[in-house]
Design a protein that fits this description.
15% strand, alpha/beta, 6-stranded mixed β-sheet, single chain, 6-stranded parallel β-sheet, 343 residues
Length: 343
């Protein structure tokens, strides 16, 4: 048997009313008497009537749907961002469609095309590592689609953006290692051209400079696929520990790479923190359960999601075109654990 949703016509037929009367009653119109409203609403609740979102979208010229593109839902940072987005979306009567780019430019483009074809009211996106060509995203924006960027933002689109204070977070992480007695601090990060990579490396370099420690280029390693390819992380560790002067600490400036680096160190029987101290970016709750518990820079992921959704709604629901945009910067938190014990 084919499922058929209850409609206003069904309610009208059952109650012996016109469809226009039922429609007005459900909208709490002043034209309908309180008694008729009560009868209609009680019956609608009894039969579990739900308004047709397609019909509503045609009437309002809005789908009340938001598209969200992240690299990977399983990544704890992005899952927490999505929770933040949905907390505001649900409160304001919007649905959320989530797509994963898996760091692929081709897949991100397919996600964008799919969401645009579904007439979403707006888009929240953190761009994929592979993406270098933003023409389609820019075209959507120029055609009037409200877009908010978060975490991995780009300069090509002038809109609201939400990021962590990457420079400060990395500065504090590097400073923490220096204060614990470490001087040979390596830096492992995602693709060099990525906005967050550049900012986090700036914080690392600034902390070294402020504490009189020479910057060594051979201590800086970039994993272009952000840790998705295990061999890339293995190569990074192999490069660092093949150096004549091996690092005594590693700062990993990426969520996925952090646990990946720890996995490789364990496989190579390099003990943390006895042989090398380790600090990373991570929002996973498991970082305190890992052996040893990891010192991490924690991003305010839930608040980033909330802010992104609030800013998107500011564009969507504004009665006038929005021309003034904000880049909102939220502070990170340094969570100190056993992986950075004093040298």
């Amino acid at each position: 048997m084919k499922f058929e949703a209850v409609t206003i016509k069904d309610i009208a037929k059952a109650l012996g009313l016109s469809t226009s009367t039922v429609s007005r009653a459900l909208r709490d119109s002043y034209e309908i008497s309180p008694e008729t409203k009560r009868i209609v609403i009680e019956y609608a609740q009894k039969i579990n009537y739900q308004p047709n979102p397609i019909a509503l979208s045609l009437k309002e010229r809005k789908s009340r749907t938001i598209g969200v593109i992240v690299c990977e839902i399983a990544n704890s940072f992005f899952s927490q961002v999505i929770n933040g987005i949905e907390s505001i979306a649900n409160e304001r009567g919007y649905n959320v469609i989530i797509a994963q780019s898996k760091e692929s430019a081709a897949r991100e483009l397919a996600d964008l095309q799919f969401l645009a074809s579904r007439s979403v009211d707006g888009l929240i996106i953190s761009v994929a590592l592979e993406t270098q060509d933003f023409r389609f995203l820019k075209d959507l924006h120029q055609r009037g689609l409200p877009i908010v960027l978060f975490d991995r933002i780009i300069n090509e689109i002038e809109t609201h953006k939400v990021i962590s204070n990457n420079v400060k977070g990395s500065y504090e992480a590097t400073k923490h290692l220096i204060e614990r007695g470490y001087k040979n601090i390596a830096f492992i990060a995602s693709a060099e051209g990525l906005f967050i990579t550049r900012e986090r490396m700036a914080g690392y370099q600034e902390a070294l400079k402020d504490h009189g420690i020479e910057l060594r280029q051979d201590y800086i390693v970039h994993c272009e696929h952000g840790g998705i390819i295990h061999e890339e992380t293995e190569d990074a560790i192999q490069r660092l520990f093949s150096l004549r002067k091996k690092p005594d600490a590693i700062f990993v400036a990426s969520d996925r790479l952090t646990t990946g680096v720890l996995r490789v160190l364990k496989a190579k029987k390099i003990k943390v923190p006895q042989q090398v101290s380790l600090i990373g970016y991570s929002n996973t709750d498991y970082s305190e359960l890992i052996d040893p518990p990891l010192t991490v820079v924690k991003q305010p992921a839930f608040d980033i999601g909330k802010s992104a959704m609030q800013m998107l709604l500011h564009i969507i629901e504004s009665k006038r075109p929005v021309s003034t945009f904000e880049t909102r910067v939220l502070n990170t938190e340094l969570v100190i654990r056993e992986s950075t014990r004093p040298k």
